[in-house]
Amino acid sequence: MKKTAIFLITALTLAAALSACTARTPPMKEGLTSGQSNAAMADESTGEHTSLEDDTAIVFPVWNHNANRYDKELAEQAALYAMLAYDESVYDPADSSYYSKTERDAVPVPESLQSQLSADGYQSIQSENYGNEEENDISYTLAYQHINKDQVSLVVVLRGTDGVEWLGNMDVGRDTRHESFEKANQALQTGVNAYVEKHQLKNILFFVTGHSRGAAVANLYAEDLSRNATALESKASNVFCYTFATPNNTTAPTEEKNIFNFCFEDDFVPQVPLARWGYAKYGKTFMASAQALYGTNPDFKKLVDTNIRLSNHREPSFDQAATEKVLDDFYSLAPSVEVYYTKAYMMSPDHGLVSREEDQTMYGFMRNYIGNAAAKGLADIGSSLGSALKRLPAGNDVKAVADYFIEGWLPPHSRNSINDTHQAFTYYAALKTGGFSTPDS
């Protein structure tokens, strides 16, 4: 995702306060004995599973977590993985910091995530779908680690929206589950099944996490695993799921005890599709206000200040009132999924993707303007969007919705709330500094 994208994942600068997390012992608390490594368990040249019949020299990592109880250690590790799933994230060993590249590599790979997983003892690390052009896909990374002779921990880390997937985000559909998220979930299951078969994995503990779109799909996948509704045999006690900025994805939610979601109430993304349309998410959700935390939690403020100032050279911006207003505006324009798809509003752009006067439903507007701007960058869509907005009546709710997403496209160009609140680093900083009210608080 380029720096010009709407939901900009800005630089993830972690100062020394975060370096301890990178260097710390992972949840599997004991490593292998001296002279042993995970290479002893798998042939990395082929990725094929290696027999563990002679395990006398191996001290397996300890997995002492309960899927049905909130686990602070797992939650923080999941937040770190979800943040590093963005391939723009780069680790700088010189000062133990993370930052985000301005431009994506020609062949995107989440190198920082892969390095972290390797450091945490995972093997056969495989990343898929990064930078592809499938709007209903999901970019993900898989890796596994033996926790005893017969059992493995399989980590599934899902990246937030990758390029044209922004278009898919707008495809709510009319079924029980969000149309695009569910398509991505099914594609993910196919990929995981193939990985499990390739490495001959048995008796699996699933550790699933993601941010934004990745969180929505992780939430669906964990639900299916917990209900034993996938091709892989599983049960809820073997599924550990922690998600961040999780969009609503279903009209038939269940309160699974092993799925934990973390959402800011001043973040638009976790609140759509709208609850007033009947949408929610699986599992238990912990809420907090990023704006309130910034004013009351010095540790959170310090981390956020370091990140935003070093990456954007400005003060962080959080605006809960703006988020609440845009949700109300959006609901006034589309009080139901049916209206979202059917009621049209006049737009008159001069040029760009639309070259003639045309009515746009909110679905069309969100997909053709907002989705395209996010996927392609404002350089490709901004002039057309700006022209369309200028022709709308003053105070028009469509204009207000667009201005929120375009980060102050209309004067006075001062609002950045959607960006700063939504980014994965902000969630990680909140979790690390006790910002969410959890059972261990």
Notes on the protein architecture:
The structure is a single chain. The protein is an alpha/beta fold and 441 residues long. It folds into 2 domains: 16-318 and 420-432, Rossmann fold (3-Layer(aba) Sandwich), CATH 3.40.50; 320-414, no CATH class. The chain is 37% helix and 15% strand. The protein has 15 helices and 13 strands. It has helices at residues 16-23, 72-84, 111-119, 165-169, 179-199, 213-226, 290-296, 298-312, 320-333, 337-342, 362-376, 378-390, 397-405, 417-422, 424-432, and strands at residues 42-43, 48-49, 89-92, 97-100, 123-128, 140-148, 151-158, 204-211, 239-244, 259-264, 284-288, 344-347, 358-361. The protein has a 7-stranded mixed sheet, sandwiched between helices. Strands 1-2 form a two-stranded antiparallel sheet. The longest helix is centred in the middle third of the chain and has 21 residues, at 179-199. The protein starts with 15 loop residues before the first helix and ends in a 9-residue tail after the last helix.
Structural class by helix and strand composition: alpha/beta
Provide the number of structural domains. Answer: 2
Indicate the mean pLDDT. Answer: 80
The low-confidence runs, each spanning 5 or more residues with pLDDT under 50, are: 1-50, 349-356, 408-414
Question: What brief labels describe this structure?
Answer:
441 residues, alpha/beta, two-stranded antiparallel ribbon, 37% helix, disordered N terminus
